[in-house]
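hey
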């Protein structure tokens, strides 16, 4: 069985307990305007162009592209017509000597993923760590996700699923049989605001997390704090009620950051939150204190 990934990162410390290897699957049904990994969204490979690495005068990609999707640009070296480029050949990236052009997304087998993660088994054992499947959205590739997690469990590796919960319950139910902890990303509690900022309602997401709660699955709820979008007292109070209802272990607070903004330009896209500043530590502490006042365990993930 094969699936589409865009990265495998080793020695991660913020994707679950201990030292972890995180497998990032490509493809996500949501379009969160604050997404810091836009390269994870589309469920097909795509070209990323870093103009800072372009060699002046080099036009090998323009000459090579069979779709004529490349042209010279005085400001940024080259310009890509994304509508023409379907990334079926990757010839431009093959001839790019400076790696200004790279292909994001590769098809790999379950066996190839396991070969990569097994290298770190000694670190998992010494730190109570393991493997985390993230995205994108793992539920967008349910069979691939399930088979990786199943194979990990067969090898005695601790498993974490990092998901928005936006997927079919029939798929999620089969996956969580092989999951030790679920990091459940809640974007917003209000369905209309959720749709406005992610492109989809949260009804399915909330339904799935409640079903997991009924099964007493270990859940850590995660909330990325986006100033003026989901940090209101009303939204946090609703999140607190959900946390208690599903008996979540705790709430992880992740501060909004702008580290992924440059990726949008490299993918030929516009970033949706221009000018928005990250929350201050004081701001984060106020949210944390509200959770603590309701006896909800919480951690800042920075």
């Amino acid at each position: 069985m094969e699936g589409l990934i865009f990265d495998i990162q080793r020695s991660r410390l913020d994707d679950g307990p201990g030292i972890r290897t995180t497998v990032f699957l490509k493809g996500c049904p949501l379009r969160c305007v604050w997404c810091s990994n836009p390269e994870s969204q589309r469920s097909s490979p795509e070209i990323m162009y870093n103009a800072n690495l372009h060699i002046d005068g080099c036009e090998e990609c323009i000459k090579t592209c069979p779709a004529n999707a490349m042209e010279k640009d005085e400001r940024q070296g080259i310009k890509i017509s994304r509508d023409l480029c379907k990334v079926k050949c990757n010839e431009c990236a093959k001839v790019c000597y400076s790696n200004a052009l790279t292909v994001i997304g590769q098809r790999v087998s379950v066996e190839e993923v396991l070969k990569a993660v097994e290298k770190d088994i000694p670190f998992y054992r010494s730190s109570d760590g393991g493997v985390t499947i993230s995205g994108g959205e793992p539920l967008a590739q349910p069979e691939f996700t399930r088979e990786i997690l199943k194979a990990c469990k067969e090898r005695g590796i601790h498993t974490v699923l990092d998901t928005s919960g936006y997927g079919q319950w029939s798929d999620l139910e089969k996956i969580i049989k092989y999951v030790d902890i679920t990091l459940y990303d809640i974007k917003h509690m209000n369905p209309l605001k959720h749709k406005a900022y992610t492109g989809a309602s949260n009804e399915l997401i909330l339904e799935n997390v409640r079903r997991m709660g009924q099964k007493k699955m270990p859940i850590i709820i995660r909330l990325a704090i986006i100033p003026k979008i989901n940090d209101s007292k009303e939204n946090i109070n609703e999140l607190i009620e959900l946390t208690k209802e599903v008996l979540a272990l705790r709430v992880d607070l992740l501060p909004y950051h702008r580290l992924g903004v440059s990726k949008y330009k490299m993918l030929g896209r516009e970033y949706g939150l221009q000018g928005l500043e990250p929350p201050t530590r004081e701001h984060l502490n106020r949210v944390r204190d509200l959770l603590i006042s309701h006896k909800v365990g919480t951690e800042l993930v920075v």
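The radius of gyration is 20 Å. The chain has two domains: 2-42+108-300, 50-104.
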